[in-house]
Design goal:
Layout: E1 6-9, E2 19-20, E3 27-29, E4 34-39, H1 54-57, E5 66-72, E6 80-90, E7 94-99, E8 122-129, E9 134-138, E10 145-149, E11 153-158, E12 167-168, E13 172-173, E14 176-177, E15 189-193, E16 199-207, E17 224-233, E18 242-244, E19 248-255, H2 258-277, H3 281-291, E20 296-298, E21 304-311, H4 324-333
Parallel strand pairs: 1-4, 3-5
Antiparallel strand pairs: 2-12, 4-17, 5-16, 6-15, 6-17, 7-8, 8-9, 9-10, 11-14, 11-16, 13-14, 15-18, 18-19, 19-21, 20-21
Helix pairs in contact: 2-3
Length: 343
């Protein structure tokens, strides 16, 4: 296998995308390219202290900046883009989390309207120890502090939607987008169905860690140095974003109400078992019912996202997505330890 092409992208402040679809590509890449990327945090780097309230330092809709999009040569509707996360490393020694008026799972929102007033705005600055791999929570209203393990992930990755749609980078749907699942970590391969020529891949919204559901609507948000390998599966369709780790196959679904997001992820998993693992539909339905894990990704975004994951060692010994995850893992081991960046 020849050495992969490596493209390094460090966007300037005016060079981010704010939507999926509707933005011109920043580069054209061939399948097999390694992308060495900087992604800004969801606040575009504007929340740096407890005094920086989102309502004062950020301007809607300029939230959740994305690095990209990248035009992948040869990608056409009906194909699948495979994005393998080699490394995801915080680019700074701090991260920010907030409450945002009329946003989050435990407050009134524009979609769940009530006479209840919005929760107050507040900011928490998390100190990251990249050597120890910890993130420090410091209470605002007491002296409690504790170090939690970092678990870096990307909240947002996607391609251009179908049907000429342009979607805000805050929205998850069949094209990917702001799914906010902690499963999107280093060592995982994400499969995205291609909807337009070139796919137009973008990613961003790095989280130093996040609990399942992202209850208040904001994770431990930080800029990231991220390395991914981009590959193309010709003639393989992927209706909803899928992930594959060394241990699990993982389906996602995004919709409102929450039970529809759940149904989408479960149905996609059943259909995956039928297509690649030799199950009949009813056998797959029964098997998934008794084996699936169903963590929440987010219950705060414009669409909610649910995950359906199943252990590989409980499945028949079959190849999925043409064995691409294992091959990309092998390529990743040939890259410099910890990725390409040193900071």
């Amino acid at each position: 296998m020849s050495d992969p092409r490596i493209l390094t992208v460090r966007p300037e402040p005016g060079e981010y995308a704010w939507t999926f679809g509707g933005a011109p590509p920043v580069a054209r890449i061939t399948p097999g390219t390694v992308l060495d990327l900087f992604t800004e945090d969801c606040f575009a780097g504007n929340v740096r202290s407890e005094k920086d309230l989102v309502s004062e330092v950020c301007q809607f809709p300029y939230l959740n900046p994305q690095t990209g999009p990248f035009h992948v040569e040869g990608a056409e509707p009906g194909d699948t883009l495979a994005v393998h996360f080699v490394s995801i490393e915080p680019a700074r020694d701090w991260a920010a989390s907030t409450t945002v008026p009329l946003f989050g799972a435990l407050t009134s929102t524009h979609a769940t309207a009530s006479l209840q007033p919005p929760l107050p705005e507040a900011v928490w600055i998390w100190q990251l120890d990249r050597a120890r791999r910890t993130a420090r929570f410091a209470s605002r209203d007491s002296d409690f502090e504790t170090d939690l393990p970092m678990d870096p992930m990307h909240g947002t990755i996607g391609v251009a939607p179908a049907h000429l749609e342009v979607r805000s980078a805050l929205v998850p749907d069949a094209h990917g987008g702001n799914m906010d699942t902690p499963e999107m970590r280093a060592g995982v391969t994400c499969y995205l169905g291609v909807n337009v020529e070139g796919a137009l891949l973008s990613l961003g919204d790095g989280h130093a860690r996040q609990g399942e559901g992202e209850t208040c609507g904001v994770a431990v948000e930080c800029a990231m140095n991220t390395v991914v390998i981009v590959e193309l599966l010709k003639g393989v369709s992927t209706p909803w974003p899928r992930l594959e780790s060394d241990t699990h196959i993982i389906s996602t679904g995004s919709a409102r109400p929450l039970e529809d997001a759940f149904r989408i992820s479960q149905l996609d998993l059943v259909q995956w078992l039928v297509r690649d693992y030799g199950f009949s539909e009813l056998d797959a339905y029964q098997f998934a019912t008794q084996t699936v894990e169903s963590p929440l990704a987010n219950v705060c975004d414009t669409n909610y996202t649910c995950v359906a994951k199943l252990r590989k060692d409980w499945l028949p010994a079959r190849e999925t997505h043409r064995g691409l995850h294992a091959r990309l893992r092998e390529v990743a081991t040939t890259l410099p330890r910890g990725g390409l960046h040193s900071s």
